[in-house]
Amino acid sequence: MKIVLLGPPGAGKGTQAEMLVKKLFLPHISTGDMFRAAIAAGTDLAMEAKSYMDKGQLVPDALTIGIIRDRIAQPDCREGFLLDGFPRTLAQAEALDQMLADMDTELDAVLNISVPLDNLVTRLTGRRMCRQCGNIYHMTYNPPKDENTCDSCNGELYQRSDDKEETVKNRLTVYENQTAPLIEYYTNTGKLKTVDGDQAIGKVLVDLGAALGQNWA
Ligand code: ADP
Ligand code: AMP
User: N or C: which end of the chain has fewer CB within 10 A?
Assistant: First the structure.
């Protein structure tokens, strides 16, 4: 299955993606995670991406489309993949359609996680990530047992630099202007399924499963 997870920053894409890929046996492809890994490794790609990420802006399409083109050509993507955080612009969505058409295939579903904008600032400013395994927590909604330590690998938890309030507000504006139009784009393809993301994490997963025809209740 080839799936896109759509939704504003903080909707719960990363949280749900981790669980979905375990159930569906798909590679999890997150452009944000790929950029953060490149930054940690200090590559040239990273330096360019970082300047945009720090301001809450999108990394330019050419760069982002290029990394996805390389990634989905890998052998582990032959049976499908779950895209998280890509596409984020109409140009990216069109490029993805073209890449898949060139491979004689197409997307199976676009899962749109919908959360009221008012909740997103609290979700993003309270988010903590594990430096080691990438697990996602929230200090109130999904707290770790120890505030500085990952429950699953004992790695150090940190706050993403773009999760500070000023940057978060920019990211939400960027979402409204550049990414929200994808809802209409994918509605027109008949592939969009919207799930209420303003529910308990486990219930959102059940609803995402139902949107894919799975019974995980
Ligand atoms: P995204 O990848 O869409 O930016 P995340 O999965 O990182 O979003 O989630 C953003 C924050 O919201 C995290 O701190 C996460 O723990 C929290 N979160 C995710 N899903 C829910 C939910 N259903 N209810 C409350 N908080 C949630
Ligand atoms: P995320 O981890 O999905 O919240 O993404 C973090 C940041 O990485 C975003 O604010 C952008 O700066 C950049 N980014 C991630 N995915 C994309 C994308 N598809 N297009 C452009 N920039 C992206």
Answer: C
